[in-house]
Here is the input.
Amino acid sequence: MTYVLLVYDHGDSLDALPEAEREAVYGEYEAFARTAGVSGYRLQPPETARTLRIAAGERDLRPGPLVAQAPELAGFYLLDTDDPDRALELAARIPAARLGGAVSIHPLREAPRPNR
Here is the structure.
């Protein structure tokens, strides 16, 4: 099974940390990204997002994410594991979870198989 770990963080969560501590947190993220079965992606800041809706065949494109929120969606990891406890254990290692942000753990649906 694949899980997506959505990482929510405040854009300035590391600013108040001393440089050595901030570098240690970056190191934690780098080490986490090297974990077997994990691949991760960092998002650009929310102000770079755009939201598209289509109603009655008309496009409605607006600047910004669908929902402005704090903490903001900062990135995500894909995790391959059949063990939901492992997904939780790994999510707890993501620094944002302890630095005022959060990690949302979602199992992905399996793709339907085509009829043959």
Summary: The chain has a mean pLDDT of 92. The first strand starts at residue 2 and ends at 9. Residues 2-107 form a domain with the Alpha-Beta Plaits fold (CATH 3.30.70.1060).
